[in-house]
Amino acid sequence: MIKRNPCAANIKAGYLFPEIAKRRKEYAAKHPGAKIISLGVGNTTEPILPHIDKGLVDGAAGLGTAEGYSGYADEGFENLRRRISEVFYNGAFGIDEIFISDGAKCDIGRLQLLFGSGVPVAVQDPSYPVYVDGSVLIGAAGPWAEDGYSGITYLPCTEENGYFPDVTKIPENGIFYFCSPNNPTGAAATREQLNALVRSARERGTFIIFDAAYSEYIRESTLPKSIFEIDGAKTCAVEVNSFSKPAGFTGVRLGWTVVPGELVYSGGESVNADWNRICGTIFNGASNIAQYGGLAALDEEGLKEIRRLSDFYLGNAKLIRKALRELGVSCVGGDNSPYIWARFPGRDSWDVFAEILEKCQVLTTPGAGFGPAGRSFIRFSAFGHRPDVEEACERLAGLRG
Ligand code: PLP
């Protein structure tokens, strides 16, 4: 019999969200008829808006005609790559630097393959689990050692440091996953903070994998939406982004990654060329139908719909924040991101999770699942139908006393 991959064996049991789903199931089995409302996961809930939806439908219909048919599109439709450069980067990138993907998470996995197992890894603590778990799967980290994986530098993001880590602590010649606006803390890094990050990465020869999946939730005009708004980033950063959260494409699957031509390894070799090779080898491109939807999302009407949809979820976030503050729970996030990070000092997040489920039948996400610094926090997600969010907020009042 074939032996188990030791890297897979190093993964700590229970990826966060399956574990939450398991606990929900157990609760529902014990309390048949209970209406559980989820403020737990980052899955979108609202229908794709009409103009963008029409882009998908027309794109699919076109594939059934001789003129509209297309096959493999490798790095992605050229017009979509050009449009991404115009809309998100002020035209600063050529189409050869933008790679269309089937989503940010999938590209993060492929990026881990690009850098391999011999590289030091750092993350914000707390952080989106795929940075850490993917690093373990590729052999760049692990096994689990008490409070985190060996081989990973966890940089705490706490109330004291404004949820921005000490970037002078990032390892040399490694990769640093940085997400802004952040999942789970909801913190959006300022220009000064990102300047410090880029400076530190360049000094240390470390690459930043900048996850901008929530950039369209930024409402404060001074906050950067991309790492490439920062001078010098083209020589030390890769950016992943996605149509999932702004356009509701979580099930459609479409994203992109920017790998600047200037980005080189220590020996001067091009990272972009390697990325192109990897994508061509193990990925045959995003769905053409999804890309037609992406084109619709980025025209004038589509961008208005993106704004409308993200405004809707930010409206939910405002309600959740208000409900928590009325309870006297201190929280951050929710103003430039769909996540609210709520603090329960001295408590274990899985216990708070269980209490909220028990008393309010509201599902949340325990902060410990995002890293050791999340131990006393709960993440509330603003992805939900408005009546459900309103009801969940009323129920949260039940936590009083
Ligand atoms: N990056 C972050 C920070 C996320 O929170 C998520 C999804 O929750 C993703 C990436 C996944 O994006 P996609 O649906 O494009 O794979």
Distinct small-molecule ligands in the complex: pyridoxal-5'-phosphate
Q: Please estimate the helix content.
A: 25-40%
Structural class by SSE content: alpha/beta
Number of helices: 13
**Could you give the order of strands across the largest sheet?**
2-8-7-6-5-3-4
Give the C-level CATH assignment of the largest domain: Alpha Beta
CATH topology heading of the largest domain? Aspartate Aminotransferase, domain 2
Q: Tell me the count of domains.
A: 2
Percent strand equals: 5-15%
Instruction: Give the tally of β-strands.
Output: 13
Largest sheet: 7 strands, mixed
CATH architecture of the largest domain: 3-Layer(aba) Sandwich
Q: In words, what does this structure look like?
A:
The protein is α/β, with parallel strands linked by helices and 401 residues long. Helix content is 39%, strand content 13%. The strands form three sheets. It has a seven-stranded mixed beta sheet with strand order 2-8-7-6-5-3-4, with helices on both faces. It starts with 5 loop residues before the first helix and ends in a 5-residue tail after the last helix. It binds pyridoxal-5'-phosphate.
What are its keywords?
13 helices; 7-stranded mixed beta sheet; binds pyridoxal-5'-phosphate; single chain; 13 strands; Aspartate Aminotransferase, domain 2; 401 residues; Aspartate Aminotransferase, domain 1
